[in-house]
């Protein structure tokens, strides 16, 4: 499995289609600073699950009730969602919608709007089952967008152009059957009949999509499933979205077919494409698994590899979960409640060669080894949200210490 390493990389990348297109996160030419900016506001309780950037406004979602400006003393009520100005850090006073449940996912919309997905059923008294499009000007729902999810929650969102992709453990969008994965019209919320990919055969519980990421012509999907449209795709698959009707890509891997600890029947978590879409990285939970199982690890895969493929590289934590990843070209940022990276021999311990990277770290995108960047964070549950943008890297979690400073649940590392 692990034999397909960097020497194979050149021939694999050449299989990618020519040209450039937006994919993954924003490209950086260097690693971000380890010193967080001082302007980000503070989330005073709960956890941050998702971050979106709409023009110059940062939208933050999760499960919380109170926020405060970085330099202020006034505590503001915000129910699972708030927004602030990226440049100044000031919380937007007029964006304060009431959502009656947690926000798990966000995606930037057009015309000063944002999409929020989660476990809520209403927004300011309006029925918005698990998915809503909101105006940043006043927090009100966009009435022309209707895409109610039923039977479960929304855990992941990704938008490109007129398409909005949804992942979760829902069973229906409106009256149409869509199991854990759907594509809707970004303006109206109407279910797209050209996208019917169905995850199936979960491990011991219901089907669930944990994460989505968009490449140039591929949608990466991971979660609690072993098949996509009947094709064997244990916990991870790619969907070809370049055709008129989406179809499961021939790309496949058995890297996540092996079981981790019984408490984690499905253990894939975050994923992200490189900015050029040529590769992507998956992070996992699962408990100490050893080098033959990709438990508690980050692994790189080549998007246009043919046939059954293994990871180009794997970096193990040695027994601690990773939940989030952001790939910028200069680095692969990983976050969770890990203590170490470069730790394939560890089992809740530091094995030979392990380096301390409490709660957050960066991996070299080619070698797969930990970079020297080590700002540290209070570990807690872990990082649940990254967002790379032109000015740096936003980080959302459940703890209050980031880069050895007080930054409650939201922070940003700037590009130097």
UniProtKB/TrEMBL annotation:
<protein>
    <recommendedName>
        <fullName>PKD domain containing protein</fullName>
    </recommendedName>
</protein>
<dbReference type="InterPro" id="IPR011047">
    <property type="entry name" value="Quinoprotein_ADH-like_sf"/>
</dbReference>
<dbReference type="Pfam" id="PF17164">
    <property type="entry name" value="DUF5122"/>
</dbReference>
<feature type="signal peptide">
    <location>
        <begin position="1"/>
        <end position="23"/>
    </location>
</feature>
<keyword id="KW-0732">Signal</keyword>
<dbReference type="InterPro" id="IPR013431">
    <property type="entry name" value="Delta_60_rpt"/>
</dbReference>
